[in-house]
Every structure is written in C-alpha cells, then in structure tokens.
Design goal:
heterodimer; A: alpha/beta; Rossmann fold; 11 helices; B: mainly alpha; extended
Chain lengths: 286, 219
C-alpha cells in the first residue's frame, strides 16, 4: 500500500495530461448532457435587466477579450446578441481589446443574419479604441469624439442608429464582456459611477470572484461568470423563448464537469499520498 | 528645468482631470475633454512605437543569433503579412486580414489558453496539499466551488436518497454561490479597497512631484 501511494505521488505528468485531454474529449464526443439548474442568480439578473428593456432601446456591448478567452466569452456574446435582437433592442458594438472588434463582428453578424437585424439600423460595430477608461470618460460627453467612424470606415453621422445616440448617457444599458483589464472595472467606474448608465458584465471564470463586489453594491445589474454563466444564459433563453436555438456553452458543461472531477481526483490522490508520507515520516522519527 | 517642466505638466494635467470630476463645468470640463483627446492620440502613437520596438528587438535577435532566434523571422513575417493585408484590403468580413484572423489567430490564441487546463491539473496535483488547517479550509472551499460551478455537482448530490425531493435539490450550487457572495465578496472588497487606497496615494504622490520614478533615472 505504501509503495502504491509513493508511486501515485510521483505519477508522470504526461499521465495527468492524457487523462485531462480524455476528460474533455470523451464527454464532447459522447454528447453527454447534464441538467443546468436555473434559479435567481447573477445570470438571471442580467437576463431580467435586458428583458425589461422596452423594444427600441439601445445597448452597448464592449467586446473586451481576445481569442485566448473566446471559448468562454464568445458563447456569451452570441447568446446576448440573439436575446437583444430578438427583443427588438438596438446594439452598438465596440472593443477595448484590439482583437475583440473582430470577435464582436462575428457574434453580432451571426445573430443579426439569423434574426433579420439590419446593420447600421439595428446594430453597428464601432471597432477598437485605445485609452480604456479614458475613452469611456470621453464617450460620456461625445461618442463621436472617440469614434468618428465605425470599424468599416462609415462616418458616425452617416449611421442611422447613432443619430440619437450622442453620448454614453443616451444608452440604456452597457455590457462588458471582459477577459481582464480594460474591461468591467473601467465600465463600472466610468459608465455606471460617473454617468449613471446601468452596466452588466460577462467574464472568465477565474475573474468572476472579483466582480461579485459590484453585484453586491448594485454597480453591476448582472454577471455571466465563465462558461457556466454562458450556459445559464442559453438555458434561460431556451426555457423562456420558444424556438431559441441551443448555444455553444451548454455542450461544454459536460466536458467541464468531468474535467473538474478529474482534477479533484488528482488532488485527492496527491493529498492521500502526502498524508500517508507524513505519517510515515513521523513514525520514522519516533 | 529638465525636472521642473515634466513635474509641472504632471501637476497641471492631474489636477485638471481630478477637478473635472468634482466641477463638471467650464473651463474644467472642456479642458478635461481636450486632455482625454490628447491621451488617446498619445496612446495611439504608442501602438506604432510598440510595432517599431517589436521589429527592432526581433531583428537584433536574428542578427546576433540569440537564444531561440529561429522564432523571430516567424514573428516578423506574421506581423508584416497581417499589416499588409490590413492596409491593403481593409479588415472587413471576408477580406484576407479577416480570413487570417479567423483561421489562424483565433485557433492559435485559443490553443495557448487551453493549455492552462493541463498545467492547472498538474500543479493542483503537486501543490494543493492539506498541510495545515488553513490549507485544508481552502481545499474544502475549492472542492465545493468546483463542484457547484458545474452541473455534475448537483447530479451527485441528488444521488443521495431524499436529496432530490428535499427543499434544496441544488444544494451544492447554492453553497458554492454562498461562498462566492459572502466570504469571497468580503475578501475581494478588502483587496479592492486596499488597492484603491494605494492607487489614490500613488497618484497624489505623482501629481505633487513626490513620486518621480516614472520620469526615469535616479533623480
């Protein structure tokens, strides 16, 4: 037994890698499905914040991420834009991360195509801006000063959607899909605290804990945390909107479930071996 | 004079930006807007500086055959090709820049981040040890949150006889949410308030010329 524990403690890291890979691939290949419970929580709060907006409202989505976190944040972007277009809300896309503009374009164009939303009438992608929080501060007095044209070079004044949206305060809700800084922090500090615009968020699972403080104070109206947050949102849409298509995050929850179990299994094995080794060392010392 | 001018500029700019928050009227509002416009111009110029720096660093690496120099031609080549595609055909959907972004940059970026799963599993196995009561507390909390953030946690809970019919069929999820909303939030608030006070103190030291390390050099 002692020798087995010793061998387990020194297991080759390649074994861990293979088991991790299997724990992700097998559930996806077998299309395992676990029920996702939806109650009151930050995901539902964000859904309600959007669902209570009157049709014709304007929402800014800031795509503050890059391809490295696409797996977690892109499903949120797709689910949110689908909900917004389906609800008759106009969407302004922008990005404080250079590569976020292209990912945002992909998400918005995909949702717009399936729901018949018109570019420049129902949605627009303003593109990337430098300056993070300072840009948002400037957008508080004039969005055109930061974005004289959209991502494709169309002048601000030629975009019908932007005619009655001159400053950040004209927007009904801002949502930052954030993989780090600049992201939700900047939006809360500038859009919410300075100009009073309600702010919602979506973030990676590792950064979700730090944004719970803003939920507690009401500075965030809702939050999607990691792939689970995206899966929550997709499930709410499926439950509440007849005919809503399945999303990208829900199938990933099975893979994430099994991989969490595998990691926990390794931690347990490591600790059993560690505690057995400690007892042995203590026994030897006596 | 070399010291006075930048310190004076920092003081004036810092004070204008602070005052526009408290006095949102002219002249502070317009001065603040002008300064933010300048900031965005300077930040945009920094992107070009970054590009020049990238070329300089990697050219030198190739010239002097430094360690792992073989990767540098790939970096420079990728940079130049993407730049030429962007300037030549624009960044709209279906253009060469967009095609390279969607088919190369996105999968490679996602792959790099995905590797974390393997490292996290390996590191957790070797380092996450219940060596004292504080580490054990952390370990137990981590287990509950890891199970509560995925649906299988409640599936396992409902395997216990009577759990599914109880008033808390999603107990693991509820406990995980409680950990996030109470102990986690308290800790995060303490960290955030401490960091914010540090930012305020450092900013004031810079505005009043006490902190000068941003100027470079020892003086």
């Amino acid at each position: 037994m002692g020798r087995l524990l010793e061998r387990l403690d020194k297991v080759d890291r390649r074994v861990i890698y293979i088991l991790m890979a299997a724990s992700v691939i097998v559930p996806l290949a077998l299309k395992l499905d676990f029920p996702i419970p939806i109650g009151s929580g930050p995901s539902m709060d964000l859904y309600m914040a959007i669902d209570t907006l009157p049709p014709g409202s304007t929402v800014i989505i800031s795509f503050d991420y890059d391809p490295s976190t696409k797996a977690e944040l892109q499903p949120m972007a797709v689910a949110l834009t689908r909900h917004l277009f389906g609800h008759g809300v106009r969407v302004i896309g922008m990005a404080m991360w250079p590569q976020g503009a292209s990912l945002g374009q992909q998400a918005m164009a995909q949702a717009a195509d399936s729901l018949g939303a018109e570019q420049y009438e129902d949605w627009v992608n303003l593109g990337y801006t430098v300056g993070a929080g300072v840009s948002l501060l400037r957008m508080g007095s004039s969005i055109e000063a930061v974005y004289p044209q959209d991502r494709d070079g169309v002048p601000y004044d030629s975009i019908p959607l932007m005619r009655d949206v001159r400053r950040l305060g004209d927007v009904d809700l801002a949502i930052s899909l954030s993989a780090g800084d600049p992201g939700i922090h900047s939006w809360v500090m500038m859009a919410k605290d300075t100009y009073g615009v309600p702010v919602g968020g979506g973030c990676t699972a590792v950064s979700a804990p730090e944004f719970y403080t803003y939920l507690g104070t009401g500075q965030l109206v809702g939050l999607l945390g990691g792939l689970r947050g995206a899966a929550d949102y997709e499930t709410i849409l499926r439950e509440r909107i007849p005919g809503a298509p399945g999303g990208l995050a829900t199938p990933g929850m099975a893979a994430q479930s099994i991989s969490h179990l595998v990691i926990m299994g390794f931690i347990v094995i490591g600790n059993v071996a560690f505690i057995a080794g400690r007892s042995k060392r203590k026994g030897g010392a006596k | 004079m070399r010291l006075f001018v930048p310190l004076f500029m920092t003081f004036i700019c810092g004070m204008i930006i602070i005052l526009q928050f408290f006095v949102p009227h002219r002249p502070f509002s317009t001065l603040g807007e002008r300064l933010t416009d300048w900031y965005m111009i300077v930040a945009s110029a920094a992107i070009f500086l970054g590009a020049v720096n990238l070329l300089q660093v990697h050219s030198a690496r190739i010239r002097f055959r430094q360690k792992n120099w073989q990767y540098s031609p790939v970096v420079i080549g990728g940079f130049l090709v993407m730049m030429a595609a962007g300037f030549g055909w624009g960044v709209a959907d279906g253009r060469p820049f967009d095609w390279m972004f969607q088919t190369m940059v996105v999968p490679m970026g996602a792959t790099m981040f995905s590797l974390l799963a393997f490292f996290v599993a390996s590191a957790a196995f070797r380092a996450f040890r219940s060596s004292n009561w504080r580490a054990t507390l952390l370990l137990v909390s981590a287990f509950i949150v890891m199970l509560g953030r995925v649906p299988i946690g409640d599936v396992i809970w409902r395997l216990i006889p009577g759990a599914a019919a109880s008033s808390h069929p999603n107990l693991v999820n509820e406990i995980a949410e409680w950990i996030m909303q109470v102990p986690n939030m308290a800790g995060q608030r303490a960290v955030m308030i401490g960091a914010s006070l540090g930012v305020v103190a450092t900013s004031l030291r810079m505005i009043f010329g006490i902190e000068r390390s941003y100027l470079g050099g020892s003086d």
